[in-house]
């Protein structure tokens, strides 16, 4: 019995050590960049609902936007796609998160995907309908709201994340994706090397 107890404690100790190691081991993306805590989330892709880890964007400059199909700012899709097309080869990625939190989004993901592609030719990564504000907000958006202290107040709220995976700034819906202040911030951070 004593041998069994010591064996059990030994196995428990090994399990605990391995589990602790797994939790502290940094996740890396295909480029070998460690995944920052802010990006350690997975969302279903809009087009096919396949799980996508945000860790794959580690080392990039990221513009996160909560979107909607029936909003006065919906035409910003055009500017978002333009900025993405212009800077994607330099390390920018735009991530779109459709949301019905302000009651202006289509009913299902297929309709949203069709609308984005056929109306605005959206090619930047989009994810399935997501709650971005309030108690039901997903943890990723809760984290984004903590640093600048701003949760999305409306659709097309924007968050700029640096190559180090840390939030740089947030921009309200009135800020166009092609505004000089946002473009300057994007260019400045693209000029920095990934950690």
Amount of helix? 25-40%
Task: Count every beta strand, where a strand is a DSSP E run of 2 or more residues.
Answer: 6
Distance between the termini: 52 Å
Number of helices: 5
For the CA atoms, what is the radius of gyration?
20 Å
The class by helix and strand makeup works out as alpha+beta
Q: Give the rounded overall mean pLDDT.
A: 86
The CATH C-level class name: Alpha Beta
Care to give the gist of this entry?
Helices cover 34% and strands 15% of the residues. The protein is α+β, with helices and mostly antiparallel strands and 195 residues long. It has a four-stranded mixed β-sheet, covered by helices on one side.
Please explain how this structure is put together.
The chain has 195 residues and is an alpha+beta fold. It has a single domain, classed as 3-Layer(aba) Sandwich (Glutaredoxin). Helix content is 34%, strand content 15%. The chain is built from five helices and six strands, in the order H-E-E-E-H-E-H-H-E-E-H. Strands 4-3-5-6 form a four-stranded mixed sheet, with helices on one face. Strand 3 (61-67), helix 2 (76-87) and strand 4 (92-98) form a beta-alpha-beta unit. The radius of gyration is 20 Å and the shape is globular. The protein starts with a helix and ends in a 5-residue tail after the last helix. Mean pLDDT is 86; it is low at 1-26.
SSE topology:
Layout: H1 2-24, E1 42-44, E2 51-53, E3 61-67, H2 76-87, E4 92-98, H3 109-120, H4 139-146, E5 158-161, E6 167-171, H5 180-190
Parallel strand pairs: 3-4
Antiparallel strand pairs: 1-2, 3-5, 5-6
């Amino acid at each position: 019995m004593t041998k069994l107890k010591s064996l059990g404690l030994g196995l428990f100790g090994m399990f605990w050590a391995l589990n602790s190691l797994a939790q502290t081991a940094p996740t890396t993306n295909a480029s070998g960049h460690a995944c920052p805590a802010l990006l350690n989330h997975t969302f279903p892709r809009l087009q096919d609902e396949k799980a996508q880890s945000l860790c794959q964007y580690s080392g990039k400059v990221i513009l996160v936007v909560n979107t909607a199909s029936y909003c006065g700012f919906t035409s910003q899709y055009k500017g978002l796609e333009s900025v993405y097309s212009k800077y994607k080869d330099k390390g920018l990625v735009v991530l779109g998160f459709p949301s019905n939190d302000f009651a202006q989004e289509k009913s299902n993901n297929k309709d949203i995907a069709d609308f984005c592609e056929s109306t605005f030719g959206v090619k930047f990564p989009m994810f399935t309908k997501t709650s971005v504000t309030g108690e039901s907000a997903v943890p990723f958006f809760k984290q984004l709201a903590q640093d600048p202290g701003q949760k999305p107040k409306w659709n097309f709220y924007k968050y700029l994340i640096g190559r180090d995976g840390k939030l740089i700034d947030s921009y309200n819906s009135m800020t166009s994706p092609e505004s000089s202040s946002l473009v300057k911030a994007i260019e400045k951070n693209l000029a920095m090397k990934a950690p």
